[in-house]
Amino acid sequence: MKKKDYLRNGFGLFRNFGWKKNLLAIAAGYLLCLGLDRLSALLAGARMFSTLDFSIAIMPFIGFFLGIWGILGSFIEFFIGTATILITFRAYDFVLPTSYYIVAIISLIIYCALPSMLWYAFPLKGEERASFPRLDTSAHVIKYYLIMVITIAVYVASRALQDALDDILNTSFTDSVMEFMQYLGVVLIISIPIAIIISVIRTRTITINERMVLTFLIIGVIATTLCAILIYRLTVYLEPDLFDDYDAIFQTAGSDIFDQNNAEQVLYRYINYWNWFYVIITVMLNILLIIETIFMRSIEKKVTKPIIHLGDVLEKYSTHDEGVFDPEQVKTECRPYRYGYGEVSTLTRTCVNMAEEIDNYTKNLEHVTAEKERISTELDVASNIQQDMLPSIFPPFPDRFEIDLYASMTPAKEVGGDFYDFFFVDDNHLVLVIADVSGKGVPASLFMVISKTLIQNHALLGGTPKEILSYVNHQLSQNNDSMMFCTVWLGILDLTNGKIVAANAGHEYPAILRNGEKFELMKGRHDPPLGVRDGLSFREYEFTLAPGDALFQYTDGVTEGTNTEMEEFGEERLVQALDENAAGTTKEIVDGVYRGIRSFVNEAPQFDDITMLCLKYMGPDSHVQKQKKQYSLTISSRVDRLDEVTRFTEEHLKEFGCPDDVLFNMILAVEEIFVNIASYAYGGRDEDTRIDISFDEEARTIEVVFTDRGIPFDPTRRAEPDITASAEDRQIGGLGIFIVKKTMDEVEYHYLGGKNILTIRKKI
Amino acid sequence: MTIQNKPEGTALTMAIEGRIDTQTAPDLQDAIQNSIEGVTDLILDFTDVGYISSAGLRVVLLAQNWMDAKGGTMLIRGAGKNIVNIFKITGFDNFLTLE
Question: Parallel, antiparallel, or unpaired: how do β-strands A486-494 and A429-437 relate?
Fold first, then answer.
């Protein structure tokens, strides 16, 4: 697979960049060679002939970076150059065998292509495939260096072969070594900076290694320049006429005074000079490069690699990639550099410590979170228990038509200190309690539970409001070191006459609705809250609710509901909200006030529990006091439940000893009314109807009461059908109710507290 | 409620047994509607009917109108005291033929 890839792009050589870029590569190869050609000519004293053509030194490198296209460009330049030389020296009649040219071309091709092929054919250990040539690590530097050494060795060998084919220059082994040195030095000095510049342009980064290679190279160039000057001076000193003699050869070339032997000698001396020049450059450069590489390897081993590895490890640890990476694994992974005195060891130890700290912290956090979760759950349970302690099924006393009662408590925090309560102490006396415990949260709720229990217990013993409050105050004051207290309003309603006896221990004044018109705060007697001081006595006051009147009690969470402008809801807004809903049921009144508060405070958070209790007195129920047998059925208002209704009616009427004809008429009446409710009251919705059957033994009267919360409808006012009409003209509607009215002794309809209440009576 | 049809020529006797209330009345209506084709004299035998509500009365009224419309007759036989009372209260006795 890998090999195939290399073959496909000719070991990186035959990369196709697209025709525009290919042309550009050709031009670049050509211009680079041309430039270097001129440079070498310049360095050789502006003469066309020098011992080393720099453009040849750049060729392997061109293959590396510009591919086959660059090589093509440099070939063009090379052949033009060679042709120029051949033309210049055509007078000397150089005749070289054809094989010389063939070998020359082949060796040149090998020379250009080999580095690139070698680079891509041998990826380094740990590399999946060789990346674009870059001198970013010491390994890459070594690879590059070795490739250049091999390439130049091969080229020099091919040159030796080439020379062996002609007999002008008898190249010795020493000559070849010299040549090798020359090429190596020049190739390195030219190709390395270009390689680094290209990679910097490509990646827009520069590694430490590349900086170091460049630094060493610059030092090398400076050092070699100094050396070159020294050699030049030395040569001038030792052989003062070498350069003049050399120049003379060219001046006399082609003329009669040209001395062949002398020219060869001068040329030999001249080449010798350049050879040494290049050898020294190369040796110095190589020494510097080797030092740099050794230094680099050491840095890599001690600093770069550990830091890269540490980075990988920490990345894995922080992202939890590849499974859960715990601090132990970090420790194991970092073992090689954890011990020692260097900066890397310190860094590694710090990182390992940090990983452990993070782990500890995370574990601790998990523990704390779990604990918090547990407390929160317990608080939720506590909150539920507290909520459950408040009566929450409405209507609470469905068989008591004298009252319509509703209450609600909306806690601010998980558990609050507000509560309401209501319960019968006997058949006709209903105790109403609303209270607010000081403080919030768990302490308040504990105190609330105690207070509520004490109040209820004592009230059930039959005390008056002041007795109950005195007793509870006494109990709460004992051992009340935390100085918690509780404001309470407690009233006892007599259902037979609407009279309320109440006492107020520091609580808000109740609002009373009179004549169904306006609510008004009733500022009665006011005493200190419970639990503050033992031995307090409390005063009572009385007032009476007429039928239709209502009582509304609340806690300070209602009036002190605060909006974002820090305004309080206040008593005025409360009374206004009450009045707006005064005509509704108690639930509608309470819900209406709550909506009023919510829309007033708007975005602001709720600071205190909001607790409300509302009672409407419907008037005494004359039947309540009578001894009577009573049965009740609450049933879904659907025609298909008729059988159950009939069975229920028949069963209890038979029990009352109802004669057959009355039974027949009663069952008929019950069916007609039930079917009527099922068909019309709820507009198709599936809601309950309540049927109460009672028998007053004294009056020998059977009474059936139908209660539904459907749309108000008085069947008694329905137009009666014309019973004298013929069959053809008869209207069937209204017949059922008509039968009921005809067969029953009394049919009564009321709409009270959102309920249709239809009562039928029949004497036995 | 059960209904038994006893045809005698163009006369049909439907013997009804049980209660005719809101739930069963539609069944009776269907039964009568399906049986009276070609019938000139319909006899509804109420001997075993223990109960009738306004829904039942409506069916009786319908049946009477159907028979009247095709010039036939309808007779209600053996209705109990309570049921006759309901017929009287509602004025149904004005147009029903009771036996």
Answer: antiparallel
